Amino acid sequence: EDACANVKCRQGEWCNQGRCECLDTCASDWNNFDRKLCVDGNTYRHECDLWRNQCYCRTGDSRCGGETFNNHRANDDAVIKYFDECRDLTEMCDWEQQEDSFPIRLGIWFQELLRQKWSSGSDHPDDESLLRPMDSKARAATSKLMSPSTMDRAESGVISYWFCELDRRNKGSLDERDLSLLYQVLLPSNACLETFMNRCASSGSISFDQWHNCFDVPR
Fold first, then answer.
1. Which among 84, 102, 140, 206 has the fewest CB atoms less than 10 Å away?
2. How large is the average pLDDT for residues 93-101?
3. Which sequence spans correspond to the domains of the chain?
4. What is the spatial distance between Cα 149 and Cα 13, in angstroms, rounded to a whole number?
5. Nearest to residue 112, comparing CAs of 149, 74, 58, 79?
6. Sheet strands side by side (includes 37-39)
7. Domain 90-214: which topology?
8. In 121-166, where does DSSP find H-type helix?
């Protein structure tokens, strides 16, 4: 009988005689992926290295935060900031030039993405988009947001909708973990996104009111 048949190990682990152990190395297939990622200002070659390091740190393995991982001690709360080498995004962002137009452009992007999602009516649970699966009930509830707009910026309802979508833990505020998927989609190519979000935040999180103020739309 296979001792591992009913054992489910975490990412970065493998089953050895019925017990989950940290991977010593990543499968060679990972070397075929050009998929670097930035975590806490440290660049990893791929997700497997991050998972492996998290396992080492979680289990007290001496390999935790070794040279392979740029001396970064990765706990289970480590968030992938974006998929690329870590860069100084502040140097890539000309905020003085972008300040007036950035919230408008981001809001319009939010509106168009919601419109595309609404039109497709995707309700597949494996849909890995920024917006959660939208069944017929959700589409009906958001239909009023789909009416043609004459405004030069996103409607207030759209901005509210996105806050609720990003607040998947229902805390009433957004922190770095809540924004992680948005960052992963838009960074580093939209380098001013982080500056924009940091200016919205107070004490490391963004409230519902602050979110609307950042986009200069009423609640």
1. 140
2. 94
3. 13-86, 90-214
4. 50
5. 149
6. 42-44, 37-39, 80-82
7. Recoverin; domain 1 (1.10.238)
8. 136-142, 156-166
Question: Where do the DSSP E strands lie in the chain?
Answer: 13-16, 19-22, 37-39, 42-44, 80-82, 173-174, 206-207
Can you list the pairs that 42-48 forms with residues at least 24 positions away whose Cβ atoms lie under 8 Å? 42/69, 42/70, 42/72, 42/86, 43/70, 43/85, 43/86, 44/69, 47/11, 47/80, 48/12, 48/23
pLDDT at residue number 126 = 41
For residue 14, pLDDT over 80 is answered with yes
* Position 136 pLDDT exceeds 70: no
Query: Distance between CA 74 and CA 55 in Å, rounded?
Result: 9
Q: Give the Cα separation of 138 and 140 in Å (integer).
A: 5
Q: Is 174 helix (H, G, I), strand (E, B) or coil?
A: strand
CA distance 43 to 20: 26
Q: Report how far Cα 210 is from the mean position of its chain's Cα atoms.
A: 20
Q: Is 103 exposed, middle or buried (0-12, 13-18, 19+ CB in 10 A)?
A: buried
Weakest-pLDDT range from 51-60, 118-127, 136-145: 118-127
Q: What is the pLDDT of residue 146?
A: 63
pLDDT at res. 127: 41
Which residues 6+ apart lie within 8 Å of 101 measured at CB?
A: none
Strand partners, 173: 207
